[in-house]
Amino acid sequence: MLGNLNVSSIGLGCMGFSHGYGDGPEKKESIHLIRQAYESGCTFFDTAEVYGNGSNEKLVGEALEPIRDKVVLATKFKIDDNTSTSSEKSVSQFIHAHVDASLKKLGTEYIDLYYQHRVNKNIPPEVIASVMGELIEEGKIRGWGQSQATEEEIRRAHSITPLTAVQSEYSIMERKFEKDVIPACEELGIGFVPFSPLASGFLSGTIQKETEFKGDDVRRVITRFDKNNIEANQPLLDLITSFAHSKGATPAQISLAWMMHKKDFIVPIPGSRTLERIRENLGAAEVEMINNEFQQMEKELQNVQIYGDRTDEDIAKLKEIN
Ligand SMILES: NC(=O)c1ccc[n+]([C@@H]2O[C@H](COP(=O)([O-])OP(=O)(O)OC[C@H]3O[C@@H](n4cnc5c(N)ncnc54)[C@H](OP(=O)(O)O)[C@@H]3O)[C@@H](O)[C@H]2O)c1
């Protein structure tokens, strides 16, 4: 459960079909893959208005149209920091215009989970939360969330309109939210949805120093994929691979099983554009870790240093090199 929403234990991040990882498959193939994910047990799908400038919402909406009432559909709105949102009324107007545009592109009458894509530093979380309460009352959304929020932002927002889920980067390589955000979600009954749960593919073990990234692929600029860091992080992959072999699983599956073992309100949304990998990732739900194995993995992970990360600031540099 994510708040009051019942979802499959692993979702599908749909961003890569139109955004962030270089060219995706043709539209027809993408629609087929999204529907195949549902056929393979996935009922939770993630998009955002900014992915492919709206084209990703259109794609996901079309793919889910025949099964709309059987899935949980999440999308996000983003308010640029330089947008004029001086009054509460202007914030409300902005968000109402954006939710209506998303509903239209998705071809649906309601959004199950509507996230603020980044918490704005110049708009109090309470103001956003209050508008989310209006949207829930209007029946446009069923629940709402924040992305990359701090514990304080979560608590402030939640006190006005309870949050359904927080979506933030979380994986074996990025654990900063374990300290405060995940415990706060547990305390408040909020779901936690890790994005980039495979560290943008690194944890699958399929990326080498020689791998070339093209176009809008964020791995051209995030430091986790600096050639030196790919090499320096090899001991981490060796560790995960050895656990994977002992469980008859793949490194990607172990990386997902690890986080799902932690808390039942953690629902990762890996993204892939091949059926084989989509099924592999969903199959992580069948990889059961017993406590001893999990504790052993945690212990060994403590001795491994992680190099590089994924930041919005680095991703913004893509514009300069494209
Ligand atoms: N809220 C936010 O700010 C935010 C930010 C980023 C992402 N997101 C959401 O979170 C979702 C997931 O993030 P992400 O796409 O970065 O997650 P991810 O699953 O960590 O990384 C996706 C990358 O890993 C590769 N991959 C996935 N499964 C694989 C496997 N089993 N074996 C080998 N390679 C594999 C994919 O390649 P192929 O596609 O080529 O298979 C793709 O390049 C996105 O789709 C988006 O919906 C949200």
Task: Provide the descriptors you would attach to this structure in a database record.
globular, TIM Barrel, 322 residues, 7-stranded parallel beta sheet, 7 strands, alpha/beta
Structure description:
The chain is of the alpha/beta class and 322 residues long. The protein has one domain (12-203, 251-287): Alpha-Beta Barrel (TIM Barrel). Helix content is 41%, strand content 11%. The protein has 13 helices and 7 strands. It has helices at residues 27-39, 55-64, 88-106, 125-137, 151-158, 181-188, 227-232, 234-247, 251-262, 275-282, 291-302, 312-316, 318-321, and strands spanning 12-13, 44-46, 72-77, 111-116, 141-147, 165-169, 191-195. The protein has a 7-stranded parallel β-sheet, covered by helices on one side. Helix 2 links the parallel strand 2 and strand 3 (72-77). Helix 2 crosses helix 3 (88-106), helix 4 crosses helix 5 (151-158) and helix 5 (151-158) packs parallel to helix 6 (181-188). The chain starts with 11 loop residues before the first strand and ends with a helix. 45% of the residues are buried. It binds NADP nicotinamide-adenine-dinucleotide phosphate. NADP nicotinamide-adenine-dinucleotide phosphate is lined by residues 13-16, 21, 46, 117, 147, 167, 195-201, 204, 206, 252, 269-274, 277, 280-281. The site of NADP nicotinamide-adenine-dinucleotide phosphate (NAP) has 28 residues, from helix 10.
